[in-house]
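User: Please predict structures.

Assistant: First:
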Amino acid sequence: MESGHVDATIVDKVDSGEIQLEEMNRVGVDKDSSSEIAKRLIDFLLVYDFEIVHSEGLIIIKIILDKFNVLIIPMGEKRILTGSDSRRILENLSDYINEEKKNVVIYYTPGGRLLTSAYLFLGHLIEKHKIGILFVNGGPEEILEVLESLREKGEFVPREDDYVKIM
C-alpha cells in the first residue's frame, strides 16, 4: 500500500457499482403495497402541508416544516431495505432535496427490516450528502412523532428503547 493511499472499502465498491449485492425476497419498494401505505399515512398527515409526488416508481410524500424538508418514502408492508436499495432510492430524490432547508429522508415500511448493508450505506449517505435519514418500521404514529419532534425541538432523537435489530 502506497503512503497516503487508502483502499476502497466494500461500501465504496458497492456505491460505485463495482460490486453488486445479492437481491433477496421482499426487498425494495412494492408499488401496490406502498400506495396503500401512503393512503393510510396521509390520513395522519392532514395537519401538515404536504405534497405527493411520483418519481421512478416511488411515491414521495414531501412535507415542508420551518427548518426542514421531509421526504417520506412508503416502501410497502414488511419490506427489507438493503444497501443498494437505500442508495438507489436516495438517487431518485435529488430533484426534491431543498438546499435552503435541512433535508430528512424517511424510509417507511411497517413491519420492515433494515439489513446491515443498508445500515452501513445509510451512515455513508448521511455523511456524503449531509442529510438526515431515518428508517421507520412502526405505524403512522411513529412518523408523526418524528415530525412533531422536528417541528417543536428542531431535532429527532430516538428513545433508548428504539433501535433497529440488524440482521
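Second:
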Amino acid sequence: MKKWKTMLALALMIFAIYFDWSWFWALFILLGLIHVIRSGEIHFVEAVKKVETPRLYWSMIIIWCFLALYSILSYLNILT
C-alpha cells in the first residue's frame, strides 16, 4: 500500500481532534522534526532546504521544537 504512513497520520489526526488528544500533537511535531532533520528539507508554505537557506531552516527547527515542548508541557499541566 502506497503512502500508508500518510493515511495513518490523517486517520490519527481525526481521532486526535475527536477525542481531544493534546499529547498527539506533540508526538506528531516530534516525528515531523525527526523527518525534517534527516532530510534537510522542510515543506511548510514552500520547500525550505538547509543547503539553500540555513538560517531560515534552523529558525523553523527551533520554532517546531518550541511548539513540541509547549504541547508536552501543556499536556502535563506544567504551564498552568
